[in-house]
Write a structure and sequence with these properties.
CATH topology of the largest domain: Rossmann fold
Order of helices and strands: EHEHHEEHEHEEHEHHHHH
Number of strands: 8
Helix content: 40-55%
CATH architecture of the largest domain: 3-Layer(aba) Sandwich
Distance between the termini: 46 Å
Radius of gyration: 19 Å
Number of helices: 11
CATH superfamily of the largest domain: NAD(P)-binding Rossmann-like Domain
């Protein structure tokens, strides 16, 4: 199944990454946000990401122009030029009520053939599907951040997701050159469920004074051959976004290993949210996002 056009609700970092990756794969993209400033920032973020790819010699200026020509910003769902895209993807914050309202808008606006995708990694897809009249055409696709560089995507069906919908979602992932990890619907799937305790324990190790943040990350990189340590990974995700995931999993599963370490809460309250603010557990060069 060739995918020709998708609609994305949410121009934050996840929406930007999905849009860039889809457009690079030859798919036309309409991306929206209810905030015009965030939409402008989202388009600027996509362009900046493509510029970094040019600097690494993996993209040419002409290829950048072609990719951007496939991405159209729209102020809201009613401004979307195509009422019959192959997929409508919500990439909004991990709030069940917000996601349900987005799906209800999708249901009202888009034709029957459009498949709805949620980007959640902690919420019930079956519960979200209840906000629409087409629960058989809803599927979960958990993209990793940063989407253009992540090798895989977790694909999960809801209780009533049809086999055709699952096959279509896998076709989209394949066209976007992502390795498919098929998972059963369960809070956290694989990646988030395993990642959260890993990061949380590193935060406790730092809070208890066992070692510095840099040395904790260095120990994990050298000891296990990981490309980055858990604290740098947390900074890359964004500590505010990470805390939302942790609290969601803690509510869903009731296991204290998912309860955010107080160190993470203190950093978020101080506005140290990770690489996007120039510092979280570690400090970064604001221009390149590199460690100082």
């Amino acid at each position: 199944m060739a995918i020709n056009r998708i609609f994305i609700a949410g121009a934050g970092r996840m929406g930007q990454g999905i849009a860039e990756t889809a457009a690079t794969a030859g798919i036309k993209v309409d991306i929206s946000d209810i905030d015009s400033t965030r939409l402008d920032e989202g388009m600027a973020g996509i362009e900046s990401s493509l510029d970094r790819a040019i600097e690494r010699w993996v993209l040419t200026a002409e290829e950048k122009r072609i990719i951007l020509s496939r991405i159209q910003p729209v102020m809201d769902i009613h401004s979307a030029p195509d009422r019959d895209p192959d997929f409508a993807i919500e990439a909004v914050p991990e709030d069940p009520d917000l996601k349900k309202s987005v799906f209800a808008s999708f249901d009202e606006h888009f034709g029957d053939r459009t498949i709805f995708v949620t980007s959640t990694s902690t919420l019930s897809i079956t519960d979200l599907a209840g906000a629409t009249g087409r629960p058989d055409r809803i599927v979960g696709m958990h993209f990793l951040f940063p989407v253009p560089h992540a090798a895989m995507v977790e694909v999960s069906g809801a209780l009533k997701t049809s086999d055709d919908t699952l096959r279509a979602a896998k076709s989209l992932a394949t066209q976007m050159k992502k390795r498919i990890i098929e998972v059963h619907e369960y809070p956290g799937f694989v990646i988030t469920r395993v990642m959260i305790p890993f990061i949380n324990e590193a935060a406790y190790t730092l809070m208890e004074g066992v070692a510095t943040a840099a040395d904790i990350d260095e120990a994990i990189r050298l000891g296990f051959g990981f490309p980055m340590g858990p604290l740098e990974l947390a900074d890359m995700i964004g500590l505010d976004d990470l805390m939302v995931l942790m609290e969601s999993l803690f509510r869903e599963l009731g296991d204290f290993k998912y309860k955010p370490c107080p160190k993470i809460r203190r950093l978020v309250r101080a506005g140290r949210l990770g690489k996007k603010t120039g510092g979280g557990f570690l400090t970064y060069d604001s221009d390149e996002g590199s460690l100082q």
